[in-house]
């Protein structure tokens, strides 16, 4: 898949997009990619107004609207979609269920509170956002596109992030259920499953922890960290008319990490 460009044949000009988790390292790249296609984007994340404004400006996303949202809150999610209707003058066409968190602890010592917090964001938040989007499309008798972000570790456990792996496996199952139940109404639901992306915690560990870097290099047949741009390309594909006959699918973009267990 080629990198997204201003003139790429995505067919997304004027499309209305909600992107959760928009101010994270991958989220910002996805948002910028949508902007380049001519789509209209409502960014949402947790930071307060001043922090969000600074992040949006610094990342070159100022042309997009922003709304803070705790995706684990039903009231916040409802308000987010109300805000989207105001910004767009109608419902969103595409909802990217991207917000997520990760934590690292040995499985037998994983704090229960951290487990609960992670599941609240990754699973409950995904369910609330996708459900609200689907209800509004059904009420309007309109088609829609859901794009979830899962992970290669939904299938291949990675040490010390067991709850994250479990949450992403659950999100994939949730995505398939939305696809199965809502296809007759013209609502498509797919997921992109990235590998080890060179942002955030993975990038910090790659740069600072030789043992982690050695383990990660063994786990990636292509031998290098994934770029966030490759994730954005996959999201644009799933949002575009080029994927019009896909629903219930997981687009695995992981450098081959899921081909076999990493341990020799």
TrEMBL record:
Annotated keywords: Oxidoreductase
UniProt xrefs under Pfam families: adh_short_C2
Protein name: SDR family oxidoreductase
Gene3D superfamilies to which the protein is assigned, alphabetical: NAD(P)-binding Rossmann-like Domain
Family: Belongs to the short-chain dehydrogenases/reductases (SDR) family.
Protein's organism: Nocardia albiluteola
């Amino acid at each position: 898949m080629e990198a997204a460009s201003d003139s790429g044949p995505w067919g997304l000009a004027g499309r209305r997009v909600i992107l959760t988790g928009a101010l994270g390292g991958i989220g910002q790249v996805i948002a910028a990619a949508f902007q380049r296609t001519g789509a209209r984007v409502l960014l949402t994340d947790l930071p307060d107004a001043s922090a969000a404004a600074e992040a949006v400006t610094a990342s070159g996303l100022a042309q997009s609207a922003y709304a803070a949202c705790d995706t684990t809150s039903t009231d916040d999610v409802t308000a987010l979609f109300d805000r989207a209707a105001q910004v767009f003058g109608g419902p969103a066409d595409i909802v990217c269920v991207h917000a997520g968190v990760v934590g690292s602890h040995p499985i037998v010592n994983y704090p229960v509170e951290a487990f609960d917090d992670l599941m609240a964001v990754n699973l409950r938040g995904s369910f609330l956002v996708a459900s609200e989007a689907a209800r509004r499309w059904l009420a309007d008798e309109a088609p829609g596109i859901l794009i979830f972000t899962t992970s290669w570790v939904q299938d291949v456990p990675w040490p010390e992030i067991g709850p994250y792996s479990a949450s992403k496996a659950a999100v994939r199952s949730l995505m398939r259920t939305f696809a199965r139940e809502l296809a007759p109404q013209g609502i498509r639901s797919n997921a992109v499953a990235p590998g080890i992306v060179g942002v955030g915690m993975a990038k910090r560990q790659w740069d600072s922890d030789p043992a982690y870097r050695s383990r990660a290099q063994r786990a990636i047949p292509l031998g290098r960290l994934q770029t966030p741009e490759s994730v954005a390309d996959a999201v644009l594909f799933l949002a575009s008319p080029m994927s019009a006959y896909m629903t219930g699918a997981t687009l695995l973009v992981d450098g081959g990490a899921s081909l076999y267990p990493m341990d020799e």
